[in-house]
Amino acid sequence: WTTSSFFSFSFFSFSLSSSFFLLHTMDEVLASDELQRQHEEEQEQYYGGMDDGEDDGNAEDVDAPQFAPVNMADQFVGFQTRRVDVPPHRYTPLKNNWMKIFQPIVEHLKLQIRMNVPSRKVEIRTCEETESAAALQKGHDFVKAFMLGFEVDDAIALLRLDDLYLDTFDLTDVKPLAGEHLSRAIGRLAGKGGKTKFTIENATKTRIVLADTRVHILGAYDNIREAKTIISKLIMGSPPSKIYASLQSVSHRLSGRF
Fold it and tell me: How far is CA 138 from CA 27, 92, 126, 134, 236, in A?
């Protein structure tokens, strides 16, 4: 009797505990639902006023805004100027080729250009007629290429094509040379009568200018990389005859690219 009474009392106590736990859980659920409902009402009251002015009709009835094409003249906020230094040895070529430089910059790029004699600089600036945002940079690259020693007919390609670049490096960046060793390296790059330089230009479809120990290359990115690889081999001491054998494969590889 005592054992059965104990189990009966234990079961009764467990039932009361379970009932109290269920009631407590239900109260939490109801309280959570109440908080959620209050939050939704507050959101509806807050954002309800923003929807009062909207049309209840279909969205298709609303006309999309029409914007006029952007005009560079409307965005003109002031003159932007670029200056290019004129080395002393380029004064005479600049004077002889001034009209060839002046016409494409003024007529094609719609820029203004002048020679500032006291400061010995060529100044280029935009105006209200400038149509392209990249015109100033193209004009600067064009004049800069001419000052580095490129011909006008070669430098003008920078205005017509977007994938042409200028790259400059020093012979001593590849290998520290001095004295006669540096002179022989320059001789290997140029070749007899400029034969080696012309061969590299034709194979890599680039233009190369040798100015003392500086090498300037004009061309596309991949072509400049191939030309720099060949020039580096010549600087390191490879004979030109060995370079000629590899130029044919380089030419075929560059010709096969789109």
Answer: 75, 23, 12, 6, 34
Residues 128-187: tens digit of each pLDDT: 888 777 888 889 999 999 999 899 988 888 888 888 888 998 888 888 878 888 888 888
How many other CB atoms are found less than 10 A from the CB of residue 88?
7
Instruction: Please tell me the distance from the alpha carbon of residue 202 to that of residue 250, in angstroms, as a whole number.
Output: 11
Instruction: Write out pLDDT tens, residues 9-59.
Output: 444 444 445 444 444 555 565 666 677 777 777 777 666 555 554 455 555
Q: Is 130 exposed, middle or buried (0-12, 13-18, 19+ CB in 10 A)?
A: buried
SS (H, E, C) 66-89: CCCCCCCCCCCCCCCEEEEECCHH
Using an 8 Å Cβ cutoff, are 188 and 234 in contact? yes
Integer angstrom CA distances of residue 219 from 13, 61, 225, 227, 255? 92, 54, 9, 9, 14
In 191-207, which positions are buried (b, 16+ CB within 10 angstroms) versus exposed (e)? Answer: beeeebbebbbebbebb
Integer angstrom CA distances of residue 41 from 18, 33, 44, 127: 35, 12, 5, 58
CA angle, corner 241, sides to 236 and 246, nearest 5? 80
